[in-house]
Design a protein that fits this description.
The complex is a heterodimer of chains A (85) and B (409).
Chain A lengths: L1 H9 L6 E4 L2 H11 L8 E3 L3 H5 L7 E6 L7 E8 L5
Parallel strand pairs in A: 2-4
Antiparallel strand pairs in A: 1-3, 3-4
Chain B lengths: L1 H13 L2 H13 L5 H18 L7 H13 L20 H9 L9 E5 L2 H4 L2 H11 L2 E2 L4 E5 L6 E7 H7 L3 H10 L3 E3 L5 E5 L2 E10 L12 H12 L2 E3 L6 E11 L2 E11 L3 H6 L9 E2 L2 H8 L1 H18 L6 H11 L20 H5 L4 H11 L8 H7 L21
Antiparallel strand pairs in B: 1-10, 1-11, 2-8, 3-4, 4-7, 5-7, 6-7, 9-10
The chains are: A alpha+beta (85), B alpha+beta (409).
Chain lengths: 85, 409
């Protein structure tokens, strides 16, 4: 039950596509943007979506939003250990 | 041909998807243009797009603040009641805008929009059934009166059959609820059905338990009232916090003619529990409580909700503000992974410059605390630079030039 409920929220209209980047992708991204991980926007490990994806602190999550202006916008969030759900 | 294709491929790398798709579609339709002209159109589109982009160093935050703030002065200060829905107050206008931006723990009127799965949404009777199932119902809601007397452990509940029908509660449910609670026992054999003025009532005698009220307290009116209050609050069915449910009808024009469907609006909000129900469309059902959305659906959903809510408020007030400003506000509010308010306790309060914080609210306290902590002012931001009379590091000011005098060519 718990797992289906977690999967359910990913289907919600308000929840954009989330994906955990692999180590290689993450390193490449940071090199391309020229930033340190802590300079990215953050997401808590306790965030329901991060939990559903089983993200760990230190991961970077790629978020593909449906933007009202650009059609599609890619955003990144750095998974942090603090913060409650 | 090849050159147009190449040109489009180059454009795809630069343009956002929506702009690119529109360009591609329009080019496909434009038959009176020659190959060469099309290439020119693509190049021009890219050029115009690039020149419309925000320049690096632009003070977008200031522009956003002005763009939301100025139309905000024209908003009504009064809380308006939504005309379309009877029995329902919806916070709109400035009070609601402040509520969102201040990230209040709970909105003053929490509301949920519950969409149902197809088989329930099409059928009014089924939609109503779901509404009854969701609505938080206590004994009080089906109660007409309680008969009691001093010194008597036995009370008689007078239940209105009309209310019970309306709430979808039957006698067995009430009996079970009372018997399984610690409040007392129903006297099964003495349940009566009476009719007065054409209205039906059930008389249900209940013997209150010792736990609820001790023997020596039976002669204290205040104690009996306390006990009766507890009986009234007895939970029968429904989801906590959902106080009122209304079924709304929508008529939609589709290819096969008019289609009616129904959705529910509730006063009070409990997203987590409602999403668990099998009848509910878990893709669209939403609350107006931003913190609740962040808790149940995650920070990105909260960002989306902030944008939609602010947009909704502004549109209802007849104001036209570009979504990009709202997106910036929502991004700032959700930057840390939790919803922060735009204020002294949130976005502004976490600025690293003490002068910028002091310029916002509680100036003396901010300066005092900054002094105690030995904070340093680096004059990187706009606000502190203006206070100090320095050119703010914005636009062309964000580039600093240094002359290396010692260096020789």
């Amino acid at each position: 039950m718990a797992r289906t409920r977690r999967a359910k929220i990913l289907e919600h209209e308000y929840v954009p596509e989330h994906r955990v980047l692999s180590m290689e992708e993450a390193v490449e991204l940071l090199r391309r943007l020229g930033v340190k991980p802590w300079q990215l926007p953050k997401i808590s490990v306790n965030d329901p979506v991060a939990k559903a994806l089983r993200a760990k602190p230190g991961d970077i999550i790629e978020i593909v939003r449906r933007s009202p202006t650009g059609g599609r916008a890619v955003y990144y969030r750095f998974v942090t250990a603090y913060g409650k759900a | 041909m090849a050159s147009l294709k190449r040109e489009l491929r180059e454009a795809k790398k630069v343009l956002p998807p929506s702009v690119y798709e529109e360009l591609e579609a329009k080019l496909a339709k434009a038959e009176d243009l020659s190959e060469e002209e099309k290439v020119w159109v693509v190049r021009e589109a890219v050029k115009i797009y690039l020149s419309a982009m925000v320049q690096p160093g632009e003070a977008v935050g200031t522009v956003a603040a002005q763009s939301i703030g100025e139309p905000g002065t024209q908003m009504t200060l009064r809380t308006f009641h939504y005309a379309g829905i009877r029995e329902f107050d919806v916070t709109l206008g400035l009070p609601r805008l402040i509520e969102i931006v201040d990230a209040k723990r709970e909105p003053s009127i929490p509301i949920m929009y519950i969409y149902l799965k197809d088989e329930y949404a099409r059928d009014e009777a089924k939609a109503k059934e779901v509404a009854r199932k969701i609505e938080y119902t206590t004994l009080e809601k089906v109660l007409d009166n309680i008969e009691w007397s001093l010194g008597d452990r036995r009370i008689v509940l007078r239940l209105s059959a009309e209310f019970m029908e309306d709430k979808g509660v039957d006698l067995d449910l009430v009996k079970d609820a009372i018997n399984s609670s610690k409040l007392g026992e129903v006297v099964e054999d003495e349940i009566q059905e009476v009719e007065e003025d054409g209205q039906k009532f059930y008389l249900v005698p209940v013997v209150l338990s010792e736990k609820l009220i001790a023997d020596e307290d039976l002669y204290k009116t205040s104690e009996i009232h306390r006990a009766l209050e507890k009986v009234k609050k007895l939970y029968l069915k429904g989801i906590k916090k959902i106080n009122k449910v209304m079924v709304k009808e929508v008529e939609e024009e589709t290819g096969e003619g008019k289609v009616k469907w129904y959705y529910l609006i509730t006063e009070g909000s409990n997203l987590e529990e409602v999403l668990k129900l099998p009848e509910v469309d878990h893709r669209r059902t939403i609350s107006n409580d931003i913190h609740e959305i962040a808790r149940v659906l995650g920070i990105e959903a909260a960002r989306e909700a902030i944008i939609r809510e602010i947009k909704n408020v502004l549109e209802n007030s007849g104001l036209d503000v570009d979504v990009r400003h709202l997106m910036l506000v929502a991004d700032m509010m959700t930057w840390t992974g939790a919803v922060r308010q735009i204020g002294r306790m949130g976005v502004v309060g976490e600025k690293q410059s003490p002068l910028a914080r002091a310029a916002f609210e509680v100036t003396v306290k901010q300066l005092y605390e900054a002094a105690v902590r030995g904070e340093e002012e680096t004059f990187h931001g706009v606000i502190e630079s203006i206070i100090a009379g320095l050119p703010p590091r914005v636009g062309t000011g964000s580039v600093l030039l240094r002359i290396e005098a010692a260096r020789k060519r």
